[in-house]
Amino acid sequence: MDAFSVSLADGLSERDLNAGKVLKIAGTFAAFQFFMPLAGWVIVHTAAERFEKLQIFIPWIALALLLYIGGKMLLEGIRENRPDAGGADASDQETKTSSLTASDLIVQGIATSIDALSVGFTIATYTILTALASSAIIGIVTLFICIAGLHIGRKIGTRLAGKASVLGGVILIAIGFEIWVKGLFF
To answer: Is-above-0.90 flag for pTM?
Structure first.
């Protein structure tokens, strides 16, 4: 659901959301959701006692990553909505294509899937084939819900026009705090 929410925020902020970009964004989230449980499975089978000490930092890492990306989107949205002293007009802003870079997408993928490492701990008793099948199911479900989130976000974003990046940034920041609170208290 974190990946769905971030996809929704990305759909809000992306101006040229074509089929290729939808697959790129949703595929990135799906790939991270596929690989993180497998990484957790491998960690349990190799160095679980070392990693267990680091697990308390996972909510903090997700919070920091989503605060960074959400804050960046929020600032870009605020800047877009201010009159530009440099003389840019509305047509210049309409031709701007995307604020989501590849590094932003990777950071979002890590932030939304880092808690899936713990899924790898719960499937540690599975065989490698069963762990792969479980991770594949997680990845496929993530792909489809992220595609839906991007389309819903795009539809809403079209209606919100210049406010979409601000709303997307706020959503990412809220998700970061939600992951942080769940990780610390639940």
So the answer is: no
